[in-house]
Amino acid sequence: MSEFGPRRNLGRLDRLRALGFFIVAMMYFLFAQVLSASAARGLTSGDWRELISRTLLLFLLVIGYAGMGYAFQLQREPVKAMGLFRREGWKREFGLGVALGWGGVLACVLPIALAGDLVITLWSTPRQFGILLLNIVVLAIASLGEEVAFRGYPFQRLIEAIGPTTATILMALFFGLIHLRNPGATSASTLVTVLSGILLATAYLQTRALWLPWGFHFGWNTVMAVLFGLPVSGLNFSAVIESNSIGPRWLTGGSYGPEGSLTAVVVLVVALVVLVKTTREYAWKYAQPVIVPGGIPVDLDAAATRMHQAAQVQSAEPAASNLVQIAAVTSQSPSVIAPSPQKMEAGTEPRSEAPGKIEAELPAETEPPI
User: Fold this and answer.
1) pTM reported for the whole predicted model
2) For position 325, what pLDDT does the model report?
3) Which one of 87, 141, 180, 318 counts the least CB within 10 Å of its CB?
């Protein structure tokens, strides 16, 4: 069970507030995009501009959403609350996401390669290898920025407002609309982007953290661009390996890349099923609601101590007699035997016999008659 993430069982007024916070958060995302791109253009040009722009965007999103969580939701650790907390096994979650993304891209590219529609060009200059490393860093930062924006604070507020299922669909649609601005975008590419948004949102819901969706997103983009040299959502990040697909658009996706093909639709549906099955343990561990205790709080240790002390006090007191007196009893010392009234003479005192020498007076023997 996770203590972070969206709140549950909210009232109607709280849901409306959460919807308002979602709208504010998405407006802030659009503002941060414009601001980071403008600042990057003013600071540098050439190969470093994309890195600066993506880094500034990530910084603005984390700082801005952390401030919103601290001010509006009273979150003590807002960065952790948006899904970025280093819990046990977070590296394994990230690695699982990378593996799933790698497998998905391989399934998309393999049919193109088997059809002979892939033309590969290699660049081996030192500058290209430097750009390769730069592009890997850019893809890592860019994928994390999109996860913070679409599966972080805004998504959590939308879940509080309309529930996880509807929030997943609406956020995936918004994710697809944002990518319509990319070069070569089509209706097929938008469908693929919406499906990927559903898959990434499911990854968050299964783990209540951003490590798995970030790993999938990063692995998908990096393998597509660096290993196969293909466009990523219409953008070119190829440096050493550059590939051109010449087959039909439904298979290759055209200039948008394999993410615009119908093959990617099938691959993402299968990947969603695989994701749910492989993350059942995470869902059981992290996606269950936190149990809030009810009733009157009781300190069991203090109660046990008080009972023990009371038992000791009772054992120290003398136990009351269980005998019941049914008749009056007079005690007489066996060492003193009062003389009979006939033998007591005037002025004489009764004699006391020594202890242990008790003798009883017997009547005098009478002489038998002659």
Assistant:
1) 0.77
2) 59
3) 318
